[in-house]
Each structure stands twice: as structure tokens, then as C-alpha cells.
Hints:
It is a single chain. The protein is 54% helix and 18% strand. By secondary structure, it is of the alpha+beta class. β1 and β2 (128-134) form a beta hairpin. It starts with a helix and ends with a strand.
Amino acid sequence: MKGAVFISLQKLVEPLIGIAGWQQLLDSCHLASEGAYTSGGKYEDAEMVALVSALVTRLDMPVDELLRLFGRHLFKDLTPGHTRLLDDCGNPCRFMKAVDQRIHVEIEKLHPGSSLPFMTVTDLSEHAVRLDYRSPRKLCFLAEGLAAGVADYYDTHFSLKHPVCMHQGADHCELELTFEPK
Length: 182
């Protein structure tokens, strides 16, 4: 997993538990990297799992809720690198289609061998899409938060349904995302 993701988690968490709290969290997880992340570095997924698990306990927050919160925050952190694409797409449904077709393609060019999720986006209506998500990481709740971040960017009302989920034994997740104009 890219270091930028770990750095974003730190930015989310430090205001909640403080710098000393973040350092205690890193120390308690016994991470191979010792928590010294660089944005372009690549780190083991197990480090993110350890940090999220420790945060769930520390914040007394369910893992799905924490991942949604983090996804929304992560989108804001990633937005500066993609404002042109966001603006070119013009609406959240078009942007959701561009994630796998353009952003993931660019990430793979810059970082060959990246472990990106496989996503297919299908129109359900003018303001709704279905996202089929497949990833061995099973970070569908993070994807929910990222989609909420997309809604924030475009200033739309957002709702979602998650009728199929890998955490319930399915081989993929289906997220039905609705972005209604305000």
C-alpha cells in the first residue's frame, strides 16, 4: 500500500489522539517500517491492518465506520492531484467511471505492480451508478467513504446501498451510489 495512504491516516487521526497518541499507536503495532512513511513508498498491507485494528480499539469505533470516515478524508487528501479530472468529468457519476479507466491506469503506469482494486461502474439512472468492487483487501467500506468524498466535492446529496458484500461471503461487493443535486 502506498505511503500517501498511511500519511493520510495519520492526518485524520492525529487531531483525535494527538501526536503522542499517534506515536504510541505506531509503537504498539510493532511495524516493520516503524511508521516512517513517505508518500511514494510502498508498505505492507499488514501495517494498515494493524493500525486500523489498533484504532478501532483506541477510538472505540466499529471498523466499517472508521474506514468510511477514513475514505472520506482520504478523498480530500487525494483531490489536489486530480482536480482537472474531477472538473473535466463534471459530475460524480462520470467521475466514478473515470476512477478505474483513468486514475487506476495512471497509478499503474507510475507504480507498476500496484495492488489496485478492480472496479466496474454501470449507470443505474442519471444520478446513480452501481460500483462492482473486487479486491483481496476487501476495503469496500473505505470505497464507501471515498464515494462520500466524491459527493462532497460535487456538493451533492449522497446515499448508498450495499446489497452484496465480500464480508458476507460474496466474491465481490456491489455499491449502489446515488448523487442527487442539492
